[in-house]
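Subject: Sanity check before I submit

Could someone independently write out the structure tokens for this chain? I want to compare against mine line by line before I put it in a report. The sequence has 148 residues.
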Amino acid sequence: MSQSNEQIVRRAYQTAEEKDISGFVGCFTEDGTFTDESIEVTYVGPNELGRTVEIYGTAFPDMHRELHQFYATGDIVIVQLALQGTHLGPLELPRGIIPPTGKRMNAPCCDVFELTSGKIKRFDCYPSGTVVLTQLGVLGDLDGNFQH
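---
Independent answer below. Compare away.
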């Protein structure tokens, strides 16, 4: 019996949760892509696809993806979720590394998957970067800092 597209996506989340890099990469087609829209970086193919799991697993050893809602139509699956974890390791970003802050992250996210033949062809991740950076104290408290 073949798995539904939702089940395939749930399995990908589970492998990421377990920090199973090869299992996560195995959920994708050979030319599959993962785009982190908050930092405008696209990872392509088996040598790059596991980087996000490594990066976030290092920065947030207790990283958890709280899956709220799934919407599936044809080969597209959309997921509303929250990215949760404690920032205990360096967070590697394209513009530099954010040293551990010890602060908790609980940030909204929306993921869009395109599947083909039981594999993920495209994964576009839309985490709320401003929420993450504010919760980690990188942006600071913006309340009251604007001139009216």
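---
OP: Matches mine. For the report I'm noting this point. The chain has one domain: 5-135.
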